Structures are given as structure tokens and as C-alpha cells.
Automatic annotation (TrEMBL):
It comes from Perkinsus chesapeaki. SMART domains: JmjC (SM00558). It holds the Pfam family Cupin_8. This is JmjC domain-containing protein. Residues 114-296 form the JmjC domain.
Length: 378
């Protein structure tokens, strides 16, 4: 039987569909750029204030940039930040339950363009996806000539300045895993086909969050990539939005833009070589954030997600966090409930329970106890 909180979340998610907050691919609003530009406050009323997504068409043609050769628009020798992974998955939980961060390198744009157009993978799969205002920080010469620094009609309605402008160049080999942002986001597809998978924030409990060991790809001397563990774990989603049947999938052709509302869960990829730019505006921390905070409060903590781990996942956790320790074999036979029982016992401390499991070395006991407390903390 579902708990009261689970029933409440299901009711909200059903209402999101019934009331049109979550449209489908046939009912999502499609607006002409010139019409939006002429009536910005109507767009604010119908979409931004209601936290509803919309597609805006005809942007590149209106701006006169629908025939730009993006491979030559940026000087070949210009240094740009490029993310490399062996599998196209960056900032994502891998099959071994490790949260993997990309190897970020500054290389000449000409080299990046050759890598991605020739589909070379000897250095990994390249994705120009550096954020933190990458366009204005790294390639400011594109501002004004091809890409507007700000969206004037959005500046007017939000009464604020754009916080970041980011350039994205990738192909179907690269994927951005599910996350949400505290920004109002206008993503414009300049070339190719961009694909977004979306769900409103009320679906976060159905996606779930867990705690994962983090690692970053580093370049080895032979140019291949390997993961190097980091000290801190990362809390990240347990499912991708596209795993839920309610997921809205949006395909943007060149010239289309997506208004991606703040807090919406989304993942993204491309169908082919794709160039895009997004403008981020700080969201208002208003009523929607209050509701979002309530939804988060109704979620099980990442620690409780551990309870459902099979013993294979627990084994991976021990081997990932303590690769140099020789732990007794019984540790690798624990399931998630057994892992929680190690820490949740009023009669015995974690250290005592570890001794009962034949772990003898004091430094090993201390290391495993600290790891368990970090994993299971609320």
C-alpha cells in the first residue's frame, strides 16, 4: 500500500497531466519568434509565470544566421574547453554506480571540429559543453555577429540581465543526464537536431535520488581516459526522465528554441552534429520554489534508497570506496538492508558491528565506519 506522501505525489503528477502543465508532443505550444518578440508580456503570462514549456520557431531566419558555416565561424586556433568521455556520458551515473565527470581540456577549435566531424574516438568522444558563461568567456567574438548576448524581450519581462550564455556542439554520441536548474532557460538550436526529454519538478520523487561515489576522467600518457576517484560522494538521480512513460520528448530543428522552465527535470542529446546556444536567466524564488521544496521534503532521503540495493550493488560500493582494503568476503554478500543494519542498531556502534564481521585492523574499521556514516546520513 502506498504511503500518504507517495499517494500525494501521484495525485500531483496526475494533475500535472490533466491540467496541461505537462503537455505531450502534440499539445506543447509552438509560437512564432516574431509574435513572441512583439508580445513579450503575453509570453510571460502564459508560460514563464505558469512554469510551462514552449517551442519558439523561426529564430535563426529572423536573426539572419540560418546559413552560418559554424565550422569556420570560430577561428581554428581559438582555444575552447572540450569535455571528453569514452562513452558520451558525462556527469552521469554509470553502470557500476559511479558518478562520472568528464575530462575537460582546452584545445584549438580546429582540432575539436576535426575530431567531431571525422567521428574520431581515439581521445574519447568530444562534446563542447562547458558552461559557466562559456560563449562570453571563451568566444566573445561570436556575440553580436552571430549570437545575441541577451534576449531583449526576455530582459524586459524578467527585469533582469542574462546570467550566462553557453555554446553547445555535439552529436548523437553525447548525452546530458537528468538534472534540473535554477534558471529560466532559452535553448536555441542553430544547426542540426537537439532532443530534450522533460518532466515537471513534481516528478522528482518518481525519479528518485541516491548517493554515489564520484570520479573524474583523466588523460593517461597513452591518450586514453581512466576514472580517478574523488573524496566526496555525489547525490544524483536514480532514473532518467525518459524511463517514465509520462516523459515529454521535444525535438528542435535548426531555428527552433525551447523555453525550458526553471526546476524542470530534463536530459538531452542530439540526433546528429548539432550546434546550439542557451541563455540562462536567474529564476524567481517564489511560490513555485515553495512547492518544489515541499516535494523534496516528501522524498525519501538518498540514504533510504540504499535499502533497496541488491547485494551486487553493495559489493560495487565496497569495492569502489575501499579498493585497497582486504575486507572479509561476508561484506560483499550484504544487501542494502544489511548495509543499513550495520549502522542502525541502538545496542552496538558501527565499529562494534564491523568487528563482529571479522574486520580487525583499526584503521580499516575507522575508514569503513566513516564511509558508512557518509553514505547513510540524512
Amino acid at each position: 500500500m502506498a504511503s500518504k506522501s507517495e499517494a500525494a505525489i501521484s495525485t500531483v503528477c496526475e494533475s500535472a497531466r490533466d491540467l496541461g502543465w505537462l503537455p505531450d508532443k502534440d499539445t506543447i505550444a509552438k509560437l512564432e519568434y516574431e509574435d513572441v518578440k512583439a508580445h513579450p508580456f503575453r509570453f510571460y503570462r502564459d508560460f514563464i509565470s505558469q512554469n510551462r514549456p514552449a517551442i519558439i520557431t523561426g529564430i535563426t531566419k529572423a536573426l539572419g544566421i540560418d546559413k552560418v558555416d559554424w565550422g569556420s565561424a570560430i577561428a581554428s586556433e581559438k582555444l575552447v574547453s572540450v569535455n571528453f568521455t569514452p562513452n558520451g556520458k558525462a556527469d552521469a551515473v554509470l553502470e557500476n554506480k559511479v558518478f562520472a565527470k568528464p575530462c575537460e581540456e582546452k584545445i584549438p577549435f580546429g582540432d575539436f571540429w576535426e575530431y567531431i566531424t571525422s567521428r574520431r574516438e581515439d581521445r574519447g568522444i568530444p562534446y563542447l559543453s562547458h558552461q559557466n558563461d562559456s560563449l562570453r568567456q571563451e568566444i566573445p567574438e561570436l556575440i553580436g555577429k552571430y549570437i545575441p548576448e541577451r534576449i531583449e524581450w526576455l530582459d524586459e519581462t524578467l527585469e533582469t540581465k542574462v546570467d550566462a550564455v553557453n555554446l553547445w556542439i555535439g552529436d548523437e554520441r553525447s548525452h546530458s543526464s537528468t538534472h534540473s536548474d535554477f534558471y529560466e532557460n532559452i535553448y536555441t538550436c542553430l544547426y542540426g537536431v537537439k532532443v530534450f526529454h522533460l518532466l515537471p519538478p513534481c516528478f522528482l520523487p518518481k525519479i528518485g535520488e541516491g548517493r554515489y561515489p564520484a570520479a573524474t576522467y583523466h588523460r593517461r600518457d597513452d591518450a586514453t581516459l581512466e576514472l580517478e576517484p574523488e573524496a566526496e560522494d555525489v547525490v544524483w538521480v536514480m532514473k532518467e526522465v525518459q524511463e517514465l512513460s509520462e516523459c515529454l520528448t521535444v525535438e528542435l530543428a535548426a531555428g527552433d528554441a525551447l523555453y525550458l522552465p526553471s526546476l524542470w527535470l530534463h536530459s538531452a542529446t542530439q540526433n546528429c552534429l548539432t550546434v546550439g546556444v542557451n541563455h540562462w536567466y536567474d529564476m524567481d524564488f517564489d511560490l513555485k520554489y515553495c512547492y518544489y521544496s515541499m516535494v523534496r521534503a516528501l522524498m525519501p532521503s538518498p540514504a533510504l534508497a540504499v535499502k533497496s540495493w541488491p547485494h551486487e550493488e553493495v559489493s560495487i560500493w565496497f569495492k569502489t570506496h575501499f579498493p585497497t582494503l582486504e575486507l572479509p568476503q561476508k561484506f560483499y554478500a550484504l544487501d542494502g538492508q544489511g548495509l543499513m543494519d550495520l549502522a542502525d542498531d541502538p545496542e552496538f556502534s558501527i565499529e562494534e558491528k564491523l568487528r563482529f564481521m571479522d574486520l580487525e585492523e583499526p584503521s580499516s574499521i575507522a575508514a569503513v565506519a566513516d564511509g558508512l556514516r557518509t553514505l547513510l546520513e540524512e
